[in-house]
Design goal:
With 115 residues, the chain is mainly β. It has one domain: Thrombin, subunit H (Beta Barrel). Helix content is 10%, strand content 47%. The protein contains one helix and six strands. The chain has a six-stranded antiparallel barrel with strand order 1-2-3-6-5-4. A hairpin with a 3-residue loop joins strand 2 and strand 3.
Amino acid sequence: MNEKRKFPRYGIASIAEISIPDSDETYDAFISSISRGGIGVYSQQKMEIGQDLNVKISFLQTNGNEEITEIIPGRIVWVKEFHGNYVVGIAFATMDSLKHSKILSYIEAAAHGSA
């Protein structure tokens, strides 16, 4: 799978709330890694490849003092079962430099080893 990625992934201490558009379905997930192109999450909920969704990411800014929350649309690109849970790869549909400036700053800081 790594050879298909366009952007390097970085660790992030974060939780995601996954929501399905036009539905009341929401799932909590732990984020394992993030890049400009997507995220990997651990979830108790099985999700389907190809499903469109919104990812609400809450994380601490690089200074550790400010909690940031951003919502990014995405699509599930792979799912693997792991010890009764699921590891899920989500590709972002868009990463807008204005709407998602704080998460992009975090990723940029991680790329330079300061996140």
